[in-house]
Write a structure and sequence with these properties.
One of its GO terms (biological process) is riboflavin biosynthetic process. InterPro entries: Riboflavin_kinase (IPR023468), Riboflavin_kinase_bac/euk (IPR015865), Riboflavin_kinase_dom_sf (IPR023465). Belongs to the flavokinase family. Keywords: ATP-binding, Flavoprotein, FMN, Kinase, Nucleotide-binding, Transferase. GO terms for molecular function: ATP binding; riboflavin kinase activity. With 204 residues, the protein is α+β, with helices and mostly antiparallel strands. The protein has a single domain, classed as Elongation Factor Tu (Ef-tu), domain 3 (Beta Barrel). Helix content is 16%, strand content 22%. A six-stranded antiparallel beta sheet has the order 1-6-3-4-5-2. The protein is globular, with a radius of gyration of 16 Å.
Length: 204
């Protein structure tokens, strides 16, 4: 059980870019989760079905915290904001509707979940809005840490905020930042139905 947020590395993965099995591509519609992210933790998440990981041979992906880039389909909500952060790249140079992301895959032992879930935190200020039903594409690029239990919700929040800082620093490196512009992530004119199964999680 995690008692202290000990000194953790603030960068994940090598400087020259992701290593196998990354990148991992997952896609799906944002679904309603447990509702704890906003209410209890102050860190709202976008949830997508765990079944996305079973396509392409990733059903055995270890539980834990990961980082990467996420794209929301602007056609599903024309008022989606562009990235307002400046920590990973300038907003003017960034593809619209793509965001740095940190995600948890697993059972969240602090809450003793019985079902595995994928909870994605998009590092951006959405003004409290949710995106239920919106299409999300997730490019998972690296592993941050294993799934942990905690002695208090405060310790959980502390570690999540550290995860966010790790994701920002890690994705800010040139070899990681360039993945934000990958065609699969930003080209919403490309039909998910024709993407090869090994390249994508689910289609909706």
């Amino acid at each position: 059980m995690q008692e202290d947020n000990a000194q953790r590395p603030l960068v994940a993965g090598p400087d020259d870019g992701p290593e196998p099995p990354f990148p991992i591509r997952v896609a799906g519609k944002v679904i309603k989760g447990f509702g704890r992210g906003s209410k209890e933790l102050g860190i709202p998440t976008a949830n997508i079905p765990i079944t996305g990981l079973s396509v392409g041979g990733h059903s055995d992906l270890s539980s834990g915290v990961y980082l990467g880039w996420a794209g929301l389909n602007p056609l599903s909500d024309t008022s989606l904001p562009s990235d307002t952060s400046t920590s990973t790249s300038s907003a003017s140079a960034a593809p619209p509707h793509t965001y740095a992301a940190v995600l948890s895959i697993g059972y969240n032992p602090f809450y003793k979940n019985t079902a595995r879930s994928v909870e994605v935190y998009l590092i951006n200020d959405f003004g409290g809005r949710d995106f239920y039903g919106a299409e999300l594409r997730l490019l998972i690029l690296g592993y941050v840490r294993p799934e942990l239990d905690y002695v208090s919700v405060e310790k959980l929040i502390e570690d999540i905020r550290t995860d966010i800082r790790v994701a920002e620093r890690s994705l800010g490196r040139e070899a990681w930042r360039r993945w934000r512009e990958e065609e699969w992530l930003v080209d919403w004119g490309r039909d998910l139905e024709v993407v090869r199964p090994e390249d994508v999680g689910i289609t909706g």
